[in-house]
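sanity check this:
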Amino acid sequence: MNLNDLRDNPGARLKSKRLGRGIGSGKGKTSGKGVKGQKAREGVALNGFEGGQLPIYRRLPKRGFNNIFRKEYAPLNLGVLDKAIADGKLDGSQPITEAGVIAAGLAAAGKAGVRLLGNGAITRAVHITVSGASASAKAAVEAAGGSVTTTVAPKAAAEATA
């Protein structure tokens, strides 16, 4: 087989409609766009326009509240952390920081920080500094002989001091 023998499967490529090529083509003159008006012209984007009727996105009620100042944290599970240390992506003997976790590809960059979650098990003593940690994650790390330091104060503690 040579390169010049390669062909598409029959019917794999559809022929494009040839518009405006005479009355006998079936798509001549106005090219299937009707006559005049805004929609017969180039560059028309009428998404959501319903002919002057109130559009559905304005008729339906909006619910809830979307807080634009909400902080989103990248999740990091204990099982993922333990596997990364075992695979050599992170050095478990040194203190682990958020920057190291992001550099190892365990958490997404561009978030407000990293939050340690208790899904999975940790088998070694690690000292980790993250933005936040769940109670179960803290308990599991401390049970393994490590420590968790959080840089962001928990919400309940912040409200108690205010």
Notes: The CA atoms of residues 20 and 30 lie 7 Å apart. The first helix runs from residue 56 to 59. The chain has a mean pLDDT of 91.
